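Q: Predict the assembly, please.
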Amino acid sequence: MRYSRLKIIFPIGLFLALFLDGSLSNVFAGHLFSYPYSSALHLVLLWLIFAIFLDDRDDLAVGLWSGFVGLVFDLYYTGVVGVYVVALPLIVYLCRQIKPWLDLNFLTLLMVYIINLTIVEAFVYIWYSMSNVIDGNLADFAVYTLGPTIAVNLAIFVILYYPVRRLYFSVN
Amino acid sequence: MQKFFSNRKLVIAIIVLIISFGLMSVSVAIRDKKSTPPLIQQFGNDVAGAVDRVVALPVNGLQGATNSVSDLLNTYQENQKLKKQVDQLAQAKVTAQTTSAENKQLRKELKLNDSLSNYTSVTANVLTRTPSSWMNQLVISKGATAGIKKNMPVMSQSGLIGRVVEVNQTNSKVELISNTSSTANKFAIQITNKAGKTVNGIISGYDKSANTLEMGSVTSNVKIKKGDKVVTSGLGGTTPKGLYVGTVASVKQDDYGLASEVEITPAADLSDLTVVTVAEQ
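A: Predicted assembly structure:
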């Protein structure tokens, strides 16, 4: 497959991930948000991280698209602008910085994903609690939200890692 | 040179964070105003909603299919149970019909055209749920063009589930009653006991662990028992009277021992929503 085709597949996959996040959250609401645990899906973040680390050419406009998809997330899902629109490009920037130092394999990428999930969830938590959108203490956040979120998303990571890697190998 | 470079990055980072925080503060501050969201945001949301329909439809279809399979497995037991209820229902329906006809007649004689309990309903599909641990919000498939306005109450087939918080042209956002944040709007409700006496109050919170709504600061002497029906009271203007909320689960003293607190089991299952009804007064 030609590389140019990836430039079309990447944004389409990104928006598919965005809307699947919401749809699957609704369908599995009983499982994802059962008290006291609540876990959010992060397919968008997963797709971004795959694009940054699996694409060897670094020729996709990941930063730009991540900002755009973050804006759509803020407007469409939450109505509070300025949270994901900053969080996602921040993640892309950080990943681009650490990429040269990483020996890329399944486990290191898994670690990177855990760290990025933590950063995004913490960023969103701090931002929302500063503007009084939510009230909750830090311990509850770590145990009942961050933990289950990482668990659920790691499971999805394990399932999707090999198919997506194949896609990127076929173009590079 | 190196130092200057890192300083510049720091400045950029701080500016970005300030802009982000500013945007967020503004959008939180203007969230409750009637005129929001602004047209451009509405347009963006409408486009996103249109694309979302393409993704949401197959996923919802898949959910429908799995639901039908599990329904099929439970059919026998359900049938037994429902048969018993049907006989009682027919009677209740006839009584309700006669009373509502009588009610209409009496209202006409009193020249009462608008009552608190009158409303028309708009049915909408649930497109998606906010994939966040912090916001219990849904996006539904009807908006301003279908006559939906801010603060309208939203129900599932079985009872009240929340209210509309943001209206675009073709879709709108619904905040569920399980949202406990301090900015959430509260519903005015009414409990009627077996003797016909009523107690008014507002939904003051949601207890996640027991999945119950709380109605706090009740100082009335009216005896409320487990199983008493709870409906919206229609006070406060935007919500019609008589929307079913749930039943009383328990009554207990509040933390200070002065007033009592009523726990209410919501009639609707907040984690399984595919079609909702918006009540329009």
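Chain A has seven helices and no strands. The helical segments of chain A are 3-27, 29-32, 43-54, 62-78, 84-98, 106-130, 138-171.
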